Amino acid sequence: MPEAEDVRRIALSLPDTTEKIAWSMPTFRVAGKMFATLPEDETSLAVRCPKEERDELVLAEPDKFWIADHEAQFAWVRARLAALEDEAELRDILADSWRQAAPPRLLDAHPQLGRPTGQ
User: Fold this and answer.
1) CB under 8 Å, gap of 24 or more: what pairs does 62-68 form?
2) Could you read off the pLDDT of 81-112 as tens digits, one per residue?
3) What global pTM score does this model have?
4) DSSP reduced 3-state for 119
5) Could you give the CA distance from residue 80 to residue 33 in angstroms, rounded to a whole number?
6) How far apart are the first and last CA of the chain?
7) Segment 16-49, tens digit of pLDDT
């Protein structure tokens, strides 16, 4: 089961990522744009996710994903760390969120990370 330190390690391994405390929690940013947070007691993470995909995720795997009330109007989803299969799934989730926040210059410089859907 991935833990908060795994989130931190993997997020910071992504290109041009920094960690910054905001709203009393760790946030991870690429080129200054937030793509992940470790809210509350660090048993979950919040990541960028297009609203249409987010709703499908929550319906398909409600034990793993949910939408926090205060994030409902934004394209973010929460994932319970204890429900993730392994570190590879965590890495996929973080990389997908990173791609959504990264500027084109970073996406072009790191093609192995792919491009977000629709770009």
Assistant:
1) 68/39
2) 999 999 999 999 999 999 999 999 999 999 88
3) 0.92
4) coil
5) 23
6) 32
7) 999 999 999 999 999 999 999 999 889 999 999 9
Residue with tokens 């973010």: 76
Query: Angle between the 4-13 and 87-101 helix axes, to the nearest 10 degrees?
Result: 50
Residue 114's pLDDT band (boundaries 50, 70, 90)?
low
For residue 23, the SS3 value is coil
Residue for token digits 């210059």? 105
* Separation of alpha carbons 97 and 102, rounded Å: 9
Amino acid at position 12, single letter: L
Q: What is the dihedral of CA 56, 98, 39, 4, to 10 degrees?
A: 110
- Alpha-carbon span 29 to 74, nearest angstrom: 17
The pLDDT tens digits of the residues spanning 55-73 come to 999 999 999 999 999 999 9
CB 35 within 8 Å of CB 29? yes
